[in-house]
Amino acid sequence: MKPKTSKNTNPALAKARRSILLWTVVFSAIMALLSLVLHQFGYQLLLWVHNVCIALVFLGALVGSIQLLYWKKPISLALGIATLLVIPFFAWFAFLGVVFGGEESIQPVGYGKMVVWDQSWLDPIFSYYDYVNPFVRPTQERIRISNKTVTYYDQNGNLIKYEDPDCTRYYDGEGNLLGTFPR
Rounded CA gap, 62 and 57, in Å? Predict the structure, then answer.
């Protein structure tokens, strides 16, 4: 006598498992959860990881919509057409975020590496973060350089030193002003 195998014969469930749009939604949920957990521990994804994830979500939504249209079921057609109409709207905002979101690079400094986020568009602004690994960086800014000021922070986010064209100000770990020195 042959043992019975538990084979799923439900065609709707098998089709749902092959749905690219479903796996795109699952991937989006996992990335959102990962971002929330990282932020809770004081980290965030580097810009290149964030942009690749956004590109994968849009590609998955596009291919999943075409797959729904290919299945030719009334609900699939409606969902596929609706998704194809919504994708350009969100793609435009994602494009603006990528173009105007700044640029990150890893720069060597005297004691190691730092992640530099260039937020310059009309006004040069550079934020320096400690280097952790090629995928994440801390959310705590260590140095901020603009066209007129330079600001230094410790690892806890406390202000250490502030430089502007007129003077340099030094602070203790509590944020109390220690002294002002003219330039």
Answer: 9
